Amino acid sequence: MPSPWAGSGRRVLRAVGATLAAFGFVIGVQIAVIHFQVDPFADVRAYYDAATRLNAGAGLYDQAVGTNEAAFYRYPPLLAIAFRPLALLPFEAAALVWEVVVVGAFALTLWRVGLGRRTLLLVGLLGLPIGWSMAIGQAQVPVTLLTALGTPLALALATNLKVLPALAAVWWIGRRDWAALTRFATWMVALIALQLVLEPRGSLAFPAVLTLDHVGQVRNFSPYVVSPALWVALVAAGGLLAVRLAPTRYGWAAAVALSVLATPRLLTYQLMTLIAALREPASSHRAVAPAPAAAPARSVA
C-alpha cells in the first residue's frame, strides 16, 4: 500500500512550487515595469542600428558602441536584414512594431507548449527572465518560439538568430533521426547562402564576432567567468548527457537546456527559452530503445 506520507510530500512540493511560481511572477511583472520605465526596448536599439547601417551601406559590425552595451549587435546578419524595413521608420514606431512581434511570439510559445499546470508553474518560476525579455524587446522571445516548435526549419532559423540553438540538434543525433538532422543541415546551408547573397560583407565578417573576446564584462552566470576550462568540460559533459538522454522522456528537455546554458555569456533573460523544454517536438524517427536482454536458452531434455 502507498504510504500516506508520499501523498503529503507531493502536496507540500506542489504548494511550495506554486508559491515560488507566484513569487516569480510578481518579480517578473515588477522587472518589466522597471525596464519599461528606465530602458524600454533597450535591445531593440541594437537591431535597429544594425539595420540602419545596412540601409546606409555601412558595415554591419562597424559599431561605435562597446561589447558591454545593449546596443552592440553580436548576432548573425539575418536579424539585421529582416529589420531593414523597420529601420526606415522612426525608432519609436519600429520598436512598437517589433514589440507586437515579441508579444505574439510569446503567446504562440504558450500555445505550443500548452497552458497546463506545468506551463503555468514554469512561467512563474521564469518570471524574471520573461519580464526582462519582454520589456527590452529581446530577440530571445522569437528564438524561444522557434526552439519550442523544434522543426528542422525552426531550429535553423533560431540558430541564424542566436547561434547556440543549434546545440538542440543533439536530440536528433541521440535518437538517430538522420532525416531530421539532414533537413536541419540543409536549411542551415540555405539560410547561410541567403545571407551571403543579401549581405555578403556582413556574412563574411560575422565569424570574427564569434570570438570569446566579445563575452564582455556583464553580469554573467556562465561558468566561463570562473574558468574557461571548467566551462568547456561542463559543456562537453552536458552534450554527452543530452545525447544519452535523447531516446528518453527527458531528451528534449536536456537538449534545450544545453542550447541555453552552454553559452559563455549567460544572461538572465536567456533562461526564458527553457520554456521550450515543456513539449517534445514531433520526430521523423522513433527513439532508439536499448536492446532487450536475451532470454536464457532452455535446456533440451
Q: What level of helicity do the residues show?
A: 55-70%
The end-to-end span amounts to 43 Å
Specify the biggest β-sheet: none
CA gyration radius, whole angstroms: 22 Å
Number of strands: 0
Q: Low-confidence parts, pLDDT < 50 over ≥5 residues? A: 289-301
Secondary-structure-based class equals mainly alpha
Strand content: under 5%
Order of helices and strands: HHHHHHHHHHHHH
Mean pLDDT across the residues is 89
Question: Treating each run of at least 4 consecutive H or I residues as one helix, how many helices?
Answer: 13
TL;DR of this structure?
This protein has 13 helices and no strands. The chain has 301 residues and is an all-alpha fold.
What is the secondary structure topology, with strand pairs?
Layout: H1 4-38, H2 44-55, H3 77-83, H4 91-113, H5 117-125, H6 127-136, H7 140-149, H8 152-162, H9 170-174, H10 178-198, H11 200-205, H12 228-245, H13 251-261
Describe this structure in words.
Helix content is 59%, strand content 0%. It is built from 13 helices and no strands. It has helices at 4-38, 44-55, 77-83, 91-113, 117-125, 127-136, 140-149, 152-162, 170-174, 178-198, 200-205, 228-245, 251-261. Helix 8 (152-162) crosses helix 10 (178-198). The two termini are 43 Å apart.
